[in-house]
Amino acid sequence: MTANGVPDPLRPRDLALVLLASRDLRPRRRARDQQADLAGLALKRRVLEQVAALDPEPAELEATLARIVEDLGQPTGAARAIAVLVRDEWRMACASPAWFAQLLGEAVDGGEPARD
What we know:
single chain, mainly alpha
């Protein structure tokens, strides 16, 4: 573990667990109907839970995400979009340990739900 709390080496499971606990998956307080937002958050939660459960090697994350999308079944559009988002978040976490440390801090802090 590095000084800023980032696991060394970082694994996709680590990111999935931190994202599951972070503010990212909490509903935002809005005056409008949030049904679509809640459905998207639930789908992202399912994908992240599968990544955490499968604990893929870093080099196997994309293949694992493709398998998760396939397992979720039709329609696959939204699941593919979430998988791309998770892949991009993985790349960001690897490129920016400070960003991962910030997410980790949010997850540990608990804090209030994000507001828009």
